[in-house]
Design goal:
Layout: H1 2-17, E1 25-26, E2 35-38, E3 43-45, H2 46-65, H3 75-100, H4 122-140, H5 144-169, E4 185-186, H6 198-220, H7 229-245, H8 256-262, H9 266-287
Parallel strand pairs: 1-4
Antiparallel strand pairs: 2-3
Helix pairs in contact: 2-3, 2-5, 3-4, 5-6, 5-7, 6-7, 7-9
Length: 299
């Protein structure tokens, strides 16, 4: 990930240096590539590394969090969640992409397994993870919402890595940027138009900002004792960030007409119910009496 961070840093420096220059930044000139490691016989892509890094870091963080007083689960539950949530991310993300963004894949189910060709939906992956949490919670008799509180603190890291990988792939670029956007960029496949690097906007808002906020609330406040507060804040915060960035992100080509007809992109329509759900859990957590501090985790 060090190469990825240095590339983003180089972009920031290049953007600042080009503030007074009319020529936009070219993605190719940053020296980025979809390949993170190429051994000749094996090539590891940033997208794959982002999923792997997000899941492993999330598991490590969850294992650290549940050692604190009042945890709703034990380590064995975290191990089960690691397995089932990974399945939920992959299966839900792929099926969600087919349903929401590329329904033609449903007529050729054999193409659904071609994960290396790209095409994953956050909303589909989210549904898959929620089902995984519900399954583990039901089997072990855990408090579903409290488990979601803990999981929600781990998710922004995967979003951060995933959006940075989108940038490294030169995909999911933004809409046309005006002349007053010095960091506007020309992407391969995006034509000669200078566009918003919306992948970095999403990485910052959906990933970095949410991660800092949720980590602070978990470790420095008593937020985890208010059932539903952390997951409500994550859900609402992600939805608001995604809804906002979609104004700068180019809609998927196959859904361009849909966005023009409805006024919002598919991504924005999918975030509206998320905002309502997130706000509900957040406000309910503030109104209800918090749990008593202390107590041991389930065995």
């Amino acid at each position: 990930m060090l190469s990825l961070v240095s590339t983003v840093t180089a972009l920031a420096v290049t953007s600042a240096a080009s503030a007074g220059v009319s020529a936009p930044i070219r993605w190719e000139d940053l020296g980025v590539s979809p390949i993170a490691l190429d051994l000749g016989f094996f090539a590891l892509k940033w997208y794959s590394l982002a999923y792997l890094g997000g899941i492993v870091l999330g598991y490590w963080l969850l294992s650290k969090m549940i050692r604190q007083p009042g945890s709703p689960m034990a380590q064995r539950h975290a191990d089960d969640l690691f397995f089932y949530a990974t399945l939920g991310i992959i299966l839900g993300g792929r099926l969600g992409y087919a349903i929401f963004y590329a329904p033609e894949l449903l007529s050729a189910p054999q193409n659904l397994i071609k994960l290396w060709e790209g095409g994953m939906s956050f909303h589909g992956g989210l549904i898959g993870v929620v089902i995984a949490i519900a399954w583990v919670s039901w089997r072990a008799g855990l408090n579903f919402v409290r488990v979601c509180d803990y999981i929600s603190v781990c998710v922004p890291f995967g979003l951060l890595f995933g959006r940075l990988a989108n940038f490294m792939n030169g995909e999911l670029w933004g809409r046309e940027a005006g002349p007053n956007v010095p960091w506007a960029m020309i992407f391969p496949g995006g034509g000669p138009i200078a566009r918003h690097p919306s992948q970095l906007y999403e990485a910052a808002l959906e990933g970095l900002v949410l991660a800092i906020l949720l980590l602070f609330l978990f470790w420095k406040t008593k937020a985890r004792w208010r059932t539903g507060l952390l997951v409500g804040l994550f859900t609402f915060g992600y939805a608001l960030a995604r809804f906002t960035v979609e104004f700068y992100r180019e809609p998927d080509a196959q859904l361009m007409d849909f966005a023009m007809r409805t006024g919002f992109s598919m991504g924005q329509w999918l975030t509206i119910p998320m905002m309502a759900v997130g706000l509900f859990f957040f406000l309910r957590a503030l109104i209800r009496k918090p749990l008593e501090v202390g107590g041991a985790a389930p065995a």
